[in-house]
Amino acid sequence: MVSQSTVREDWHEAHVASEYRSVARNFSAESENRIHDLDVAQKFGFEGGLVPGAAVFGHMTHPLIEAMGEDWATGHRGEVRFLKPAYDGDELLVRHMVAGDDHLVRCFARGETLLAELRTGPWHEPHEATPDAGRGESSERREIRWDNIHVGEPFGAFEWQPSVVENAEFAAQVADELDIYAKGLVHPHGWLNIANRALTRRYLLPAWMHVGSDFRLHQPIRVGDSVDVRAVPSNKWRRKGHEFLDLTLAFVVAGTVAMEIRHTAIFKIAARD
Fold it and tell me: Burial level of 82, CB count in 10 A (0-12/13-18/19+)?
């Protein structure tokens, strides 16, 4: 999967192409993931319940889709890193910079605090082997633990068929009114939302954090597509008391890989001292 070293690091020649403002909403306060709950998040040292990273990514893709449309979802690669949390009601400033064919999108809030960075540009490398469908695997959900994450063992694949209603909700949750989504392009917020779903279909996760994703985009996913979602844990590690997981996914449409994602999460957050 794409690594940060494959995307431009020197942005001295970049120019600001656009700025976009939006408001973050924590629409997941009642979800199974209690990191979105005010009281639980504060126990881990946060100011409030966290806005989902997939939603922050959704806000950040607005200027890319506005500038490139469906072309961005065809033949581009990139990575998004979440550096600081977004909270409900945060006024987001999304700054889009361009240097040649490469794009850098930064998301700020709370007095120029940098929340996230998204780097993207064209790619020409062959894609990696598609994860096996793993359809024979048990669908029983167990609470996630270090010793029940088996690197290289595929999850059970599942079908996702995005609907008009679901896609409208993805767009509305990030206040994105670009008409391209009403015309059938699945909102990028939905891509990472479904990557989250692949993880939560497999495990019970009481409180966890999505901290970044790498992706390669082969073709747009559209409303009504039958998407075979395949996932396999590709790495796990510990750092500063946290326990991390990489989940490698392929979204397959009509036998063709439409999108590859490496999704990184802290599945066990270090206890606060």
Answer: buried
What pLDDT, in 10s, does the model give residues 144-198? 999 999 999 999 999 999 999 999 999 999 999 999 999 999 999 999 999 999 9
The pTM of the full predicted model, rounded to 2 decimals, is 0.92
Best CA proximity match to 80, nearest among 191, 230, 208, 168? 191
